[in-house]
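Data deposition worksheet. Section B asks for the primary sequence of the deposited chain exactly as it was used as input, without tags or linkers unless they were present during the calculation. Section C holds the resulting structure in C-alpha cell form. Section D is free text for depositor observations; keep each observation to a single sentence. Incomplete worksheets are returned to the depositor.
Section A, Depositor: J.P.
Section B:
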Amino acid sequence: MEKTSTSATTAAPRRPTLLVVDDDESVLRTLTADLRRRYSREFRLLSTSSPREAEQMLSTLHQRGDHLALLLSDQRMPELDGVSLLSRSREWFPQAKRVLLTAYSDTDAAIRAINDAQLDHYLLKPWDPPEERLYPVLEGLFEDWRAQHKPGFGGPRLVGFQWSPRTHAIKDFLAANLVPYRFMDVEAEAEAKALVERQGVELSALPLMFFEDGNVLQNPELTQVAEHLRLPSKASESLYDVVIVGAGPAGLAAAVYGASEGLRTLLIDRRAAGGQAGTSSRIENYLGFPSGVSGAELSQRAITQARRLGAEFLAPQQVRGFRLKDSYKLLTLGDGEEISTRALILATGMEYRILEFENAERFSGAGVYYGSAATEAPACRQQEVVVVGGGNSAGQAAMHLAKFACRVYIVIRKPDLSATMSRYLIDQIAATPNIEVVSEHVVGSVDGDHRLRSRRASSSPSRCMSSSATAPRPIGFPKRSGATNAASSSPVAT
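Section C:
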C-alpha cells in the first residue's frame, strides 16, 4: 500500500486513487504496470492481492477524505468475489467507477452483475494490447468520472456537536492558527454520523479529529492536535538570549525587535499568535492597512516576520513558572521541560472578564462565547445574536456577526456607545439595519438544556436606582416583524 506523509499545516491535496485487486500476483503486476505507464501523472495507483485488505484500504481512503476514481477487481478470489467487493465499495465511494476483470467463462455472471451491482464495465482477460483493449475502455470511464467529480476538502476534519464546549475549543484553536479544516456536525450531517459509527465510538466520546495521514484522535487535547499538525511545541535549544511569554501584539513586536538584533529569541503562547487582537474579525484603525485587516491575518503576518528574522515560536505551550539560577532565569514549561534565558519578557496581556449572570459558566462554549465569536459566526445564519459590551472589540464583532445573523443586539450599561467606542464603528453600526443597541441593560440569565436556548436582560443597576427602589424586572428583547425568531438558539458573545 502506498504510504503518504504530511509535512506541514496544509499538505497538498493527494491525487485521486486507482485501486486494483487480483489474487493472481502475476496478473496484478502486469495490470498495475500497464495502468502506471498511462495514468501515473493524474492518479495514485494502489494494488493488493487480498480483497479483505482492499476493503480496509477503501475504508482508510474514505476516512482520510481521499477520492477514488476507479476500482478494478478480479471476479474469482478466495476470500471475497469481485462483484461483492465492488458492491460494497459503493458505501464509501458511490461515484467511483467499478470494473470487473473476468475470464470468458464468467461473462454471463459479469453481465448480470452490471445490473445487480451497478457495475460500470467488465474487462476480459487477457487485455493485450492495452492500447486497444484496456485504455479506450478506461478513458471513457474516466471522462464520465471527471465530469461528476467535485474535489472536496482534503485537510483535517473535526466531527462533533455544534454546541459542544470541547468541540468549540478545538475549532477556536484551529482558526486561531489559520489551519484549514472541515467541521462536520454529527447532529446534522449523515456523513458525520457514518464516520462515528465506523469508528465504533459513543457519541459521548466526541469530538473526533481525522487527519490526512489516516490518524484519528478521540476527544483530543490541544497539544495532541498541534502535534499531529506539526505545530512546534518543543524548544530547539536549552538557552536563549530572550524569552517572551505571550504572543499578543506586544509579545510579537518584542520578538521581531529581539530577533532583528541577532538575539536568540523564543516566543511562547498557550493558544496561538495574536492574543485578543488575533480574535478580532476586523481591525480598521491599524497603521498601514487602509482597507482594514482581520486580527488573525495581522497576527500571522507578525509571526511570519518574527520567524523570518530568526525567532522561534511555540504554541500551544504554557509557562508554569520560573526561578532565578545564577544570572539566568530558568523556566518550567507545561510539558515539564526546562529552558534558560538571559532576559525574560512577560507580555501575558489580559483575560476576558467572566460575566456573573445566571448559567454563564454552564453554557460557556455552548452558546456563550468570549471574544469576537468569529469561529462560531457561520453557525449564526438566520439566528439572533447578543453581543455584550460597548468597546471596539464588541463593535467589530457585531459588524462581523451581522453578515450572518438575522439580528444582532449590542447590550450596554451606558446610555449610548459614544464613551467607549470609536466613531467610525458607531457610524457603521448605525448604518447596519440588523444591528440594534440595547442601552442601559445587562444580561440577567441564560437557559437551555445541553445548549443555550433563551436569554433575559434587565435594566442596568444605575437606571434602576434612579427610577425605582425595587429589583430590576427581567425582560426579553423585542421580536421584530420580518425577522426570524431564533431566540431558542441565540449565541451570546461577551
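Section D:
Confidence is low (pLDDT under 50) at residues 1-12, 462-490.
The longest strand covers residues 338-346.
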